[in-house]
Amino acid sequence: VVQTGNTATESLTSTTATTIPDFTVAITPAATSSKILVMVDMNTGGSGSYNTNLQLFRDTTQIYLADAAGSRARDFSWSHVTNARFNRRANAIYLDSPSSTSAVAYSVKWFSEGSSAIYLNRTANDVDNAYYDGRGASSITVMEVLA
Question: For residue range 54-106, what is the model confidence (pLDDT) as tens digits?
Fold first, then answer.
């Protein structure tokens, strides 16, 4: 079992899928028949009426993605935040089959559907007040499941 946590605040203003900094975890399977249980737990916020799109990757291959449907983004999760005080929790649990005994890295890419900023582990307002606009923590945990 290996885990990475990201307790920093990150932001992005882009419609291009971008790897979240300091949010990658690597594991080396003992056998090619092993599966990897990937568990993602994230806090995301937005500053306008735009989606936060989240995509899961094994190395450079996108995994656990929605079926193709027109020009829609193929994500594992997306959220729509209309209030700059709101935060959304995104989760993924996926059993991957990397078929490898080399190290594999799991990461999350994110993008906004528009020109508005999206945030990790904070709200858009991020007001310094003990009663609202709190901070969050995010993690990716991977566990080898031997065949």
Answer: 999 999 999 999 999 999 889 998 877 666 767 788 999 999 999 999 999 99
120 is written with which tokens?
A: 């990790």
CB 120 within 8 A of CB 44: yes
- Rama region for 26: left / alpha / beta (φ>0; ψ in -120 to 50; rest): beta
- Residue in 142, 112, 116 with CA at minimum distance from that of residue 41: 142
- The secondary structure of 59-105, three-state, reads CCEEECCCCCCCCCCCCCEEEEECCCCCEEEEEEEEEECCCCCCCEE
How much is the pTM?
0.92
